[in-house]
Design brief:
By secondary structure, this protein is of the alpha+beta class. The protein is about 40% helix and about 25% strand. The chain has helices at about 1-25, 25-55, 65-80, 145-160, 185-190, 190-195, 250-270, 305-325, 350-365, 400-405, 425-445, and strands spanning about 80-85, 90-100, 105-110, 130, 135-140, 170-175, 200-210, 215-220, 220-225, 225-235, 240, 275-285, 290, 295-305, 335-340, 345, 370, 390-400. It binds zinc ion (2 copies).
């Protein structure tokens, strides 16, 4: 049995041998190409850093990316892309046709976060807005989308300046509202794959707050989780705090629901199949001595498989209803916000291997890190939902000294993405971003 298997494996290997070899980068060609790209990136750099700092100082929240999108549209037009604006909110689509060949989509996101910046940078954001509750909050590019935009613009410029070195079609998209998991869906619903050339491949990068600049990271296959938002309204019967027997207390009931929900992960799910159920917000009542009528819970739910997602969402409803029944309370309202659903991100194997092989060749294998999947989410996943190969990689953004310092005992921990003190170091992060993305595109359409 074992022998048969290895024999057939050998036959398969022989059969696919040439195809595998064809995916290996041609080292000489690559060296020349990388050198040329590097030169062009260096020539663009000052301009790209200025763009990056401008974007960092002027962040805009999800679905409000008016000035940001106008600026990016202007950048693409200036280098000869055919540009369409307002594709799904403030989405921008730039198309550059250059003969026969594959169509490659390169995506950047544009939105910032309601975070008050505390980096102390000379170009720190001072923008302020009012949130849903009327409170004044700062706005900050705390997820590095400003750097994504600078690298994306640089990639477009370098590729436009090398038209004699590739053949095919580029579709450069600037996507709104990534942080609320909405932008990719809006652009697809607005006809991204119907009104514009449908891509054969989709590429994107994301800043990483743990790797040194000059390094990249990747995950083959499943990289990020399904993300669902669920709202639960636990109902009761309000009354005086001194007379609980005349009420049905939704605060006690909600506390029970929060704990019961944890049994979905600990008792209902296969331990090798990751699930997260987090109650991120719980609100009810107005005063010490009043038992309220209801308590509101807001949940984030992370899964990696469609079947597990279905089971988990159903279990939340079942558990909330059962707890209410046990307490003699009215039925709770359980709402899954499908508008905020972000499907799991799966990096297609062949495209991942082809691009990672290239990265190892041009950056050195020691600067290319494989990392396990994480339970975060990214709506870039949506572009791959109907079978188009997608690949998103991580771009290192921190000085190596700071990483070494953090690794020491008692060292200052590194801030995560979305932290008010996280920022990517522009140089060389932007350069590595433009270089790797440009070469990844040329790897698919280069001559
Ligand atoms: Zn983010
Ligand atoms: Zn992000």
């Amino acid at each position: 049995m074992t022998l048969c298997r290895s024999l057939s494996a050998a036959v398969i290997l022989l059969a696919i041998g040439p195809a595998v070899l064809a995916d290996e980068p041609d080292k000489e060609k690559l060296k020349g190409r990388a050198g040329e790209v590097e030169k062009r990136v260096a020539a663009e750099y000052d301009n790209l850093e200025a763009l990056y700092k401008y974007l960092h100082t002027h962040p805009e929240l999800s679905l409000q990316e008016e000035k940001t999108s106008a600026r990016l549209a202007k950048e693409l037009k200036a280098i000869g892309f055919e540009v369409t604006e307002k594709v799904g909110g403030y989405g921008v689509v730039g198309v550059l046709k250059n003969g026969k060949g594959s169509t490659v989509l390169v995506r950047t996101d544009m939105d910032a976060l309601p975070v008050t910046e505390a980096t102390g940078l000379p170009y720190a954001s001072k923008e302020r807005v009012r949130d849903k509750n009327g409170n004044e909050v700062g706005v900050m590019h705390a997820c590095g989308h400003d750097l994504h935009m600078a690298a994306w613009t640089g990639t477009a410029r370098v590729l436009a300046s090398m038209k004699d070195r590739w053949s095919g079609t580029l579709v450069f998209i600037a996507q709104p509202a990534e942080e609320i998991g909405t932008g990719a869906r809006l652009m697809l619903e607005a006809g991204l794959f119907k009104k514009f050339p449908k891509p054969d491949y989709c590429l994107a990068l994301h800043c990483n707050p743990l790797f040194p600049h000059g390094h990249v990271g990747f995950t083959e296959g499943l990289a990020l989780a399904n993300v669902d938002s669920v709202d639960v309204v636990v109902k009761g019967k309000g009354g005086h705090g001194a007379a609980p027997h005349t009420t049905v207390d939704p605060v006690v009931l909600a506390a029970r629901v929060v704990l019961d929900l944890q049994t979905i992960v600990s008792r209902e799910t296969n331990p090798t199949d990751p699930v997260v159920v987090t109650v991120g917000s719980i609100h009810g009542g107005t005063k010490h001595n009043i038992i309220p009528n209801e308590v509101k819970l807001q949940l984030t739910v992370r899964t990696t498989k469609d079947a597990t997602r279905k089971h988990t969402l159903e279990a939340i409803e079942r558990i909330a209803k059962a707890a209410a029944q046990g307490a003699g309370a009215p039925e709770p309202v359980v709402k899954v916000d499908l508008g905020e659903f972000t499907p799991a991100l799966v990096n297609e194997t062949k495209l991942t291997r082809k691009t990672v092989g290239l990265f190892k060749e041009v950056l050195g294998a020691e600067k290319v890190h494989e990392r396990p999947p994480v339970m975060g989410g990214e709506d870039f996943s949506r572009y791959g939902r109907d079978g188009i190969p997608i690949f998103m990689y991580w771009l290192g953004t921190l000085p190596p000294e700071r990483i070494a310092e953090a690794a020491k005992e008692g060292g200052k921990p590194l801030p995560s993405l979305h932290s008010d003190v996280y920022y990517p170091i522009p140089e060389p992060s932007i350069k590595t971003g433009v270089k790797t993305m440009t070469l990844a595109v040329l790897n698919l359409v280069g001559k």
